[in-house]
Structure formats: structure tokens, C-alpha cells
Amino acid sequence: MNDTFLKACRGEKTDYTPVWFMRQAGRYLPEYQAVRGKVSFLELCKNPELCTEVTLQPIDIFGFDAAILFSDILIAMEAMGLTLEFHEGRGPVFPDPVRSQAAVDALIIPDPEETMPFVMETIKLLRKELKVPLIGFSGAPFTLATYLIEGGSSKVFLETKRMAFQAPELYHNLLDKITRCTSLYLQAQARAGAQALQIFDSWAGIWAPGDFERFALPYVQSIITDLRKMTDIPIIYFANNGSTLIDHSKNAGADVLGLDWRLNIGDAVDRVGDHAVQGNLDPIALFLPPDELEKRIKQLLVDASSAKGHIFNLGHGILPQTSPDQAKIAVDAVHRFSRK
Amino acid sequence: MNDTFLKACRGEKTDYTPVWFMRQAGRYLPEYQAVRGKVSFLELCKNPELCTEVTLQPIDIFGFDAAILFSDILIAMEAMGLTLEFHEGRGPVFPDPVRSQAAVDALIIPDPEETMPFVMETIKLLRKELKVPLIGFSGAPFTLATYLIEGGSSKVFLETKRMAFQAPELYHNLLDKITRCTSLYLQAQARAGAQALQIFDSWAGIWAPGDFERFALPYVQSIITDLRKMTDIPIIYFANNGSTLIDHSKNAGADVLGLDWRLNIGDAVDRVGDHAVQGNLDPIALFLPPDELEKRIKQLLVDASSAKGHIFNLGHGILPQTSPDQAKIAVDAVHRFSRK
User: Fold this and answer.
1) What is the dihedral of CA A38, A41, A43, A46, to 10 degrees?
2) Mean pLDDT in residue range A132-161
3) Most exposed among A215, A263, A339, B174, judged by the fewest C-beta atoms under 10 Å?
């Protein structure tokens, strides 16, 4: 068992810097495409054997130091009783946006084992196969809420902010329900065998700091407080486009803060020194010529060297257009340059 | 002549905090919609009488302390010899993206007076009518380049970064040509009578700090250096989603730094204290109930009170869905609360 990732999360000494990439099981891999070609995205998410297969692919190919459960943050929202559709080229769609108290009242708090057994099954299958730690995950309540309120993706999140600003009680009731669902979901993942948990706050960066503190952070804190009562596995909080929010997100209660690429990781370490950090290479840096890519990785490792713990990662998900060869170069460079 | 805005730009004492809103002449105004209903967007941009009319509308209605020329940042790119189309709901499109040295070579450096006479004519008409200062503007070279390289708007700007990373010389040649065009264009606006100039770097926030320094900032610096040789009117640099970049963007050479809403304006002032600042209310804060909107504006004015100069503005353009009544409440609140 390679526990380098877990050690880095806990701020313990490691022989080298562990590395994994967000969306490492994904469309840039021909091996993934081959599986995905046979089923729809939602079918894939609900098939434990196939989820296990695609989760393992990048571990075998690249030697990542952690695996992350293949799933989607919106699976748990479907389990709350909503219709979820994935449209090619348009992303997720909730045909019935949640914008009223009646719609909030209609949401159920699902028993995760009962409504998402395929997730727990995938975790169990993976734990039998894996020689590296398995990360479970969920969306953060605010990010999940945006999809429900907007009815899908958004550019400016007008409906979400409008609800927060004009109907704060309704907003809170919705967020509170999503929070309870997410909390149970992550606890179930930990029980099933997840060895770390990451909370993805993909849209955190749309908030002014004061609004983030009011409308997003408390729900993450609530989930982490719940989790701490039942498990001590590392918890990672990733507030995307959140480089301006880290003075606040460091108070989420997580062990590790995920960082996008908009901030020098050394500056981040200076500000959140008592946390391990995860990140933060620009995903498109994987398109640099190999020698420049390696140079950039070397510098990033130097910049992060005073961190309590550092897990190398991209600042966001790896892009479908990325060459697997370049991913391999990056993973190898992290391992080579960081070895003492 | 109300020169409060110009004084604040220069860091001189003012009786109150001047205010204008990005996109203040725009779709949220029924008066604008009435004009726009008669012509296409590009026709409007090229009609000095109609441009003058829509530019004046928000000044008359709300009492803003500055007017900004009604135009579009891509007008100057069309003048470089490219086909520009605006598609309803999709935004600007360049059917022939610029991705080769041949395509760069084909771009012309237009004489602004000759190719965009309607802009200079609009400025002259406006100066006859206005009792507040007139701001001219352009896009920043990097932001303009993204539209040319991507062929329109983008989400992750893969093609742009790919060119910068894989073909830096080609990228530089393109940026250099856009820079020369933009520099001449802004100089022509100043000659025609613009009393301040704003450079919009709408997509600056996609860069890691080091890449921003290499691939975006130098071109802005070059333009401002050129401008300083011929005029001392205030120059505003607005790097959108650039709250993580202000330690760099403060070196652009501008008098005023525009700020989006992702950073407390007081924290920004601490970091760029020798500049005046412009911003930075979340545009969606205009959807707050009036009393909360006023409270937020009051706090923002307090937070900005140690600034060398403060021009109140939104952190991005006013949204089409905004109620003009709320805009009026905001403008009045800025004036009332800031008066000594």
C-alpha cells in the first residue's frame, strides 16, 4: 500500500510529493473513451464494474498516488428526487429548477446506501484492487445548489444570487437540505471504504468574500463537523477560482486546501500554513513543450516546499484535449524532482 | 462641468465619491432597448448620432459622474481586416480565427480616424453635449487576441494558451500587432476629445500570475507608455477576475485600477495604495432589497475610504435583468453617503 498521499494530507513527512489529477479518469484517455463509447454518462456512473474499470485506468497507466471514485457531483442531487439529464455539449440539465419553498419541500434526504448503492459498491470493488488510497467526493452544497436553482450550468449565476439576496430564508432552506444529504452521502462513502474525501466547490469563485462567508462556507463547515464525529480520514476542500477566498476557506475545517492556478502556491502556503495544500498547475500547462513543462513543475515544487504537506495536482480538471503522453511526463517529473 | 471623476482618478480631493457603471448604456434601460430595436448591434456601434443618444441616456436618467463612449472592444479588431459577426445569444464570432503567421501577416494596422471615423465623430458629438467627463476605451491586447484566436468567446481559452505555450513567437507577433493597433486607436480617441481612457482586460483572470506577467501585462504597459508621450489624461486598467493579479497589474502604468468584486476593496487599497481604485460592487448586489443595497454601498465606501482616490463602480458590467430603479437607488446612495 502506497500511503504517500495520506501522509501528505496529514502533514507527515513523505519520500516524494504525491500526485493525482482532477478528472484523471476521463475523456483524454482512449481507454476511458472505449468504455464510455458503450454507455451513456449516467449509465457509466451507475455501473460499479465500469466505474471501477475507469477509476483504475489512470492509476495503472500513470502511477498516480491516489485514485478518485469515478462519479459525478450531481448523482446525489438526482437521489434527492430530481430529474437529471446530461446533454452532449451542454452539460447537466435539471428540467425542473428548484426556486420555491414547495420545490424545496419536495426534495427528499435520501439514504445513500439505498438510493446510491452503486457508489458504495464501486468503493468496495476499488478497495480490493487498489494499491493507492481511494478518494471519495461530493459537491459542496452551494455549488450543488447552483445547478438546482439555475436548472443547469450558468455564466453569472443570477438566479442563485438573486435567491440568496432576495429570499435568504428559502436559499438557506434549500442549502440546509442539500447539506444534510451531502453529509450523509460522504459519511456513507467513508463507511464503504473511502480513505479521504474531497468536497468540490466548483463555483465558489463567483462570490465576494463576505457573501462566500455567508452563503457558501457555513454549509461546508457543517458537513465537515459532522464527518469529524465519525471518521478521521483526510478531508480536502477545493474552492475553485477561490484564490481570493483562501483566508476564509481555510476555516472550512478541512485538512487540505485545494488551490486553482491563479495564485502562486508559495503565496498560498504563506497564508494557509497550518494546512496541507493540493494543486495547482494550470491544466493547460500540460500543453507546454516537455522541457518547459518539467521546468514549471520543478518550480512549483520549490514554491510549495515550505508547505505543511503538498499533494501535486492540477488547478482544475485535466482537459479532454490533453495528450496522455504529457500527463505521463508531468507525473514522472513530480516524482523525480521531489524525491529527496 | 462636473470634474469629480477626473479628480478622483488623479487622487485629488473630491466633495463626494464619483460613480459610473460599466455597461451603463445598455440593455437594462428601456430607453436603450428602444434605440437598439431599430438597428443591429454593429449598426448601432457605427452610428454616431445613435451612439451619442445611448451614451447620454444613463447620464440624464441617473446622474452618473462619467460617461463612457458606447462602442465594443471588437470594433478595432474588425478594423484590422477581420470579419466580425454578432449572433444573438452566442456573442461575437470571428468566422476565420487567427492561428497562423500568415493570418497574423494579413492583419492591417488601421488608421483609426480613417477606418473608425464613427468613433471619433461620436466622441466629438458627446463632448458638445456632456457636462461630465467622457471615457474612451479599448480592449487589452490579450483579451482582444482571445477572440481572434478562439474565433469568439471561450470557456477555458485552450487555443489561446496553447498558442502562447507552444508557439510563443507567433503569439507575440499577433499580440504585438494588436498592441500597435490599440495604441493608435486610444491615441486617436484622446485626440478626438476623450478625457480618460479605460483598457478592459476582460479575460485576464484565466492566467496564473507568472503567465499574466509574460503573456498579457507587457502589451498593456506598452500601450500606456505610448499614451503617456502624448497625453496626461487618466488611464484606467481593468483586469477582470484579476483580484489575484493586482500585485502585477498595479505595474501596468495606469492611474486607476479597476477591481472586480472578488476582493474586499479595503484589502485591494492596502496592496495598491499609490493608485486610485475603481469598483467594486457585485453587479448582482443591485438585486438586493433597497435597504440592504444601501447598507452594502455604505460599507464599501467605508472600506475604500483610505484609497488615494475612489471611483465607485460595479465589479463588472450591469446585467440586462437589472431594474433601473435599483440602479438609481445605488447611484443616489453613493452620492449621499460619500458627501462630506
Assistant:
1) 130
2) 97
3) A339
What is the reported pLDDT for A89? 77
For residue A209, give the nearest of B226, B265, B13, B72 by alpha carbon: B265
- What is the identity of the amino acid at A214? R
Buried b (16+ CB within 10 A) or exposed e, B67-91: bbbbbbbbbbbbbbebebeeeeeee
* Portion of chain B with pLDDT greater than 90, in percent: 98
d(CA B328, CA A165): 18
Rounded to a whole number of angstroms, the distance from the CA of B136 to the nearest CA of chain A is 26
- Measured between CA atoms, how close is B203 to chain A, in angstroms? 12
Identify residues of A whose CB sits under 8 angstroms from chain B CBs: 156-158, 161-162, 165-166, 205, 207-211, 241, 243-245, 261-264, 282-285, 287-289, 292, 315, 319, 321
Selecting from A156, A207, A262 the residue whose C-beta is nearest the C-beta of B244 gives A262
Average of per-residue pLDDT values in chain A: 97
Mean residue pLDDT across chain B: 97
Res B89 pLDDT > 90? no
What's phi and psi for B74, nearest 5 deg? -90, -5
pTM: 0.97
Q: Which residue has the cell 454518462?
A: A41
Q: How far apart are CA B5 and CA B301, in angstroms?
A: 15
Q: Pick from A219, A277, A282: which is nearest to B157 by CA?
A: A282
Query: CA dist B318 to A157, A217, B197, B279, B294, Å?
Result: 14, 26, 19, 12, 17
pLDDT at A48 > cutoff 80: yes
Residue pair A88/A34 in contact (Cβ under 8 Å)? The answer is no
Q: Which domains does chain A have, with CATH numbers?
A: 4-338 (3.20.20.210)
Contact B156 A319 (CB under 8 A): yes
Tell me, what's the pLDDT at A273? 82
pLDDT band at B88, cuts 50/70/90?
Answer: confident
Contact between residue B107 and residue B177 where contact means Cβ atoms under 8 Å apart: yes
Instruction: Look at residue B107 and tell me whether its pLDDT is greater than 90.
Output: yes
Point out which residues pair with A92 in neighbouring strands: A86
Q: How far apart are CA A121 and CA A128, in angstroms?
A: 11
How many residues are there in chain B?
A: 340
| CB-based contact A28:A327 (threshold 8 Å) | yes
Sort strands A91-93 and A134-139 into parallel, antiparallel or unpaired: unpaired
Classify A55 as helix, strand or coil.
Answer: helix
Instruction: Inspect the interface and report whether the beta carbons of B319 and A165 lie closer than 8 Å.
Output: no
Give the three-class secondary structure for A82: coil
**pLDDT computed for residue B308 by the predictor:** 96
Grid coordinates representing B279 are: 469598483
